[in-house]
Structures are given as structure tokens and as C-alpha cells.
Write a structure and sequence with these properties.
The chain has a single domain, classed as Chromosomal Replication Initiator Protein Dnaa, Chain: A (Orthogonal Bundle). The protein has 182 residues and is an all-alpha fold. It contains 8 helices and no strands.
């Protein structure tokens, strides 16, 4: 599941730009990255790299990948929440089993608008994290608490909806907003 502390939980009417990553999040990861970069530099300057160094570098790469995917997903959730007037934490957290049943009912015409809107917004956030930030499906899946197949399905659903010109414009606007933040 996504880190609830990473994302602002208050949605507000669209005001142009979303604030999606808090200062504490930035500083904690900045310190980790500086420390990791120093460790990597120290290892590279050594004449021989040990197995422990290779393991440390591998862990560093995985940590950076997780950091980038977390930031991409959090930014996308915050922007979609801002545009759809939904709580960002709700989009990031996903749906409970009961809400998943409600979404299935919505597909059959029995609508619970709020739950269906959250599910659609989550699909948009996943799509934006993958397309705008270029994050791998598996990495976004790990951050969002989903399977690779679920991320693939969410991206496919949003791509199918892009046939509607109005929806296409909305998504283009969100992509441009995120590209400015990237």
C-alpha cells in the first residue's frame, strides 16, 4: 500500500498546482540518497568490490526505484484528487473488499458514485505514474499494493477511455501539470 503520510489527504477544488510531497518526506529521502551516494562513491573508489558491496549497491538501486515510484504515484494521486475533488489518501489506499463489491455492482448499473469515482481516479493515478514518470508497471504495482496484472488492467482502462475527446483533454491537462512538476 502507498504511504499515507506521503500524500495530502485534503482534496480542494482545482487551483492549478497540487502540493503532493511534504517536506518531511523530501528531507528523509534526501538524506538517504546523499548517504547512499556517498556509499556508492566509496565503493567505486575501492580497487576491488566485495560481495557485500554488490549487495549494498543492489539494495541502493532497489531503494531508489521504490523512492521514484512512490513519489510518482503520490504526485499522480494528489493531482487526480485535486482535479476530481476526492481525498488523495483514499485514492492511494485502494479499495476495501466491500468497496470492490460496490464497484462490481456499479459496472452492472447499480451505482455507488463515490466508490466508482475513487476506483476510476486510482486508475488515472496509476496510468499517470506509468506514462508521465515512466515508472515500470511492477514498481508502481509494488507501491500501490497491486499486482502487475492489475496495473496493466488499470492502464488499459484509461487508454480505452481516451477515445472520448473531453476525457482526452482532461488527461492531457493532468499530464502537462505533472510534466511541469517532474
Amino acid at each position: 500500500m502507498a504511504d499515507a503520510g506521503v500524500i495530502e489527504s485534503k482534496a480542494r477544488p482545482s487551483s492549478g498546482r497540487s502540493r503532493c510531497v511534504g517536506g518531511a518526506f523530501k528531507s528523509a529521502y534526501s538524506e538517504r540518497l546523499v548517504s547512499a551516494a556517498a556509499s556508492a562513491e566509496r565503493m567505486m573508489s575501492a580497487s576491488a568490490i566485495s560481495d557485500a558491496d554488490v549487495t549494498a549497491l543492489t539494495d541502493l538501486v532497489h531503494g531508489i526505484d521504490h523512492l521514484l515510484s512512490t513519489a510518482a504515484f503520490a504526485s499522480a494521486c494528489a493531482l487526480v484528487a485535486d482535479r476530481r475533488a476526492l481525498p488523495a489518501a483514499r485514492i492511494a489506499a485502494g479499495l476495501s473488499p466491500a468497496e470492490q463489491v460496490a464497484v462490481a455492482h456499479a459496472r452492472r448499473g447499480l451505482r455507488d458514485g463515490d466508490i466508482a469515482a475513487v476506483a476510476a481516479a486510482r486508475h488515472e493515478a496509476i496510468y499517470l505514474a506509468v506514462t508521465v514518470f515512466g515508472r515500470p508497471y511492477r514498481s508502481v504495482a509494488r507501491v500501490a499494493g497491486l499486482s502487475h496484472a492489475a496495473v496493466n488492467k488499470a492502464v488499459g482502462k484509461v487508454e480505452d477511455l481516451r477515445d472520448d475527446p473531453r476525457y482526452e483533454r482532461e488527461l492531457d491537462d493532468m499530464e502537462l501539470a505533472l510534466m511541469g512538476a517532474a
